[in-house]
From TrEMBL:
GO cellular component: a single term: cytoplasm
Catalytic function, reaction form: tRNA(Tyr) + L-tyrosine + ATP = L-tyrosyl-tRNA(Tyr) + AMP + diphosphate + H(+)
Organism of provenance: Trametes pubescens
Annotated EC: 6.1.1.1
Protein name stated in the entry: Tyrosine--tRNA ligase
EC class of the enzyme, as a word: ligase
Region entry Disordered, spans: 279-300, 370-435
Pfam families linked to this entry: tRNA-synt_1b
Length: 435
């Protein structure tokens, strides 16, 4: 039983550090605890399907999963998310992650969401941070964050704090292992080195492969041409996939083919296993998912995880039970890039449709989205000048009464005081008859 759970926890991963620690927890009969964190900066993209799908395996193995919305980290990462936007983006991330989990059939009731600021601003956490600052060199801090923190010519001190805080999260979230992308490896080894120096236990670290960008390189939230957002419309998806780099016969540098391997096939396998009742400890898996079928065409052989639909005059449809067969055919140029792109675009649109529908029905999410990612091209609203009424001076204006007998009109509200009153009295005396 423990071996089966360990296999579920570690399958499809690129690397595992400290696997024996997880085996020890399982051997003791304890429930393993893990956390996966994300900093709410740019809009989440479809590369997130890789870790979010993997979380289904953790739940099947009865792992307690914490989702960290790392709002403090988002602010520290070279001001990618200005402080005034972090709170809105944190809410946006939570909304979209819940929608993605639901669309994948992963029960959100078993997930524990935590905002980093809920404990990272405490006295105890900050004291541990100061202790780390006293023993970590600038070289080690910079090296640890090199693949994650945005690198600039003159780095900010905040970027050097980032790896230490992520290491401390393992202790304060009380996890047995941390899960993340392989780009986090240097931060993970940093944590393994420094947490024991504070008197805390060493944790295991699990890493999923990274999905290449559509043009090659890393899929990044800051590069709109390298990624597809969860809320992209079908026509946007097709346009981006059409522009993606997908050289005929090239299987090594091919973001489209890599997406099939890292996202589409694992989701297909998950759905096939679910149909067979192979959900392990997670009996609620699949509840709420509107699409439970693998990415195979109608009439495909049993076990097909990905199909490319083609007309008979073009050779007919192709069906694959693994990524190896698809790679072999693509390398041999039996699969044309355009056919692969069309099949991938159709699959992505299927994946995103329930997420977009959830967004369109959720007015609160729509408001949060506008606050989290305001349109940079939007012109500021012009403030209308408010007319303020200024009453005319007494005796003036269209309602003023004309003066009588040629004398100037005396303001009724003004009393004769000071020098004016004295002059009036003197004039009256001079007009009196002398005695």
């Amino acid at each position: 039983m423990a071996e089966e759970k360990y296999e579920l926890i570690t399958r499809r991963l690129q690397e595992v550090l400290g696997g024996d620690l997880i085996k020890g927890v399982l051997a003791e009969g304890r429930t393993p605890k893990c956390y996966w964190g994300t900093a709410p900066t740019g809009r989440p993209h479809i590369g997130y399907f890789v870790p979010l799908t993997k979380i289904a395996d953790f739940l099947r193995a009865d792992v307690e999963v914490t989702i960290l919305l790392a709002d403090v980290h988002a602010f520290l990462d070279n001001l990618k998310a200005p402080l005034e936007l972090v709170a809105h983006r944190t809410q946006y991330y939570k909304k979209i992650l819940l929608a993605v989990f639901t669309s994948l059939g992963i029960p959100t009731s078993k997930l524990h969401f935590v905002e980093g600021s809920s404990y990272q601003l405490t006295k105890e956490y900050n004291l541990d941070n100061y202790k780390l600052c006293a023993i970590v060199t600038e070289h080690d801090a910079k090296k640890a964050g090199a693949e994650v923190v945005k690198q600039v010519e003159s780095p900010l001190l905040s970027g050097l704090l980032y790896p230490g805080l992520q290491a401390l999260d393992e202790q304060y979230l009380d996890c047995d292992f941390q899960f993340g992308g392989v780009d986090q490896r240097k931060i993970f080894t940093f944590a393994e080195l420094y947490l024991p120096r504070l008197g805390y236990k060493k944790r295991a670290h699990l890493m999923n492969p990274m999905v290449p960008g559509l043009g090659g390189g890393k899929m990044s939230s800051s590069d709109p041409d390298s990624k597809i957002d969860f809320l992209d419309a079908p026509e946007v998806v097709r346009r981006k996939i059409k522009k993606a780099f997908c050289e005929e016969g090239n299987v090594d540098e091919n973001g489209v083919l890599s997406f099939v391997e890292a996202v589409l096939i694992p989701i297909s396998e998950l759905r096939i296993e679910r149909a067979k009742g192979l959900t392990g400890a997670d009996a609620d898996e699949g509840a709420g998912a509107t699409d439970q079928t693998p990415f195979s065409a109608e009439g495909a052989p049993e076990g097909t995880v990905f199909s490319i639909v083609r007309k008979e005059e073009h050779g007919g449809s192709l069906h694959y039970s693994s990524i190896d067969g698809l790679k072999e055919d693509f390398k041999a140029k039996k699969v044309h890039p355009q056919d692969l792109k069309t099949a991938v675009a159709n699959a992505i649109i299927r994946l995103l449709d329930p997420i977009r529908q959830t967004f369109e029905k959720d007015e609160e999410w729509q408001k949060v989205e506008k606050l989290a990612y305001p349109d940079p091209n939007a012109k500021p609203e012009k403030k209308k000048k408010v007319k303020v009424y200024h009453p005319p001076p007494p005796g003036k204006g269209k309602n003023a009464k004309p003066a009588q007998d040629g004398a100037a009109a005396e303001p009724a509200s003004v009393a004769a005081t000071g020098e004016g009153a004295h002059s009036t009295a003197e004039a009256a005396k001079q007009q009196e008859p002398s005695s």
